[in-house]
Amino acid sequence: MLGIGAGQTILITVLVVAICVIVILILRNVICWYWKINKMVKLLESMEQKLAFLSSTTSIKDK
Known about the structure:
Elements (H helix, E strand, L loop, with lengths): L5 H29 L2 H20 L7
């Protein structure tokens, strides 16, 4: 392959895969920021905690 040895081919392949993974991770963060996904997850987790607290307390009807 163009006078490149087997070791160099493996090195190039590993570098290309590593660069692709880094680009995908960066794009994931940009997409999550743009669509406000991280903020929505935080709000939903907060709502879940508040609902769990409310469901664990006894209501006036139970007394």
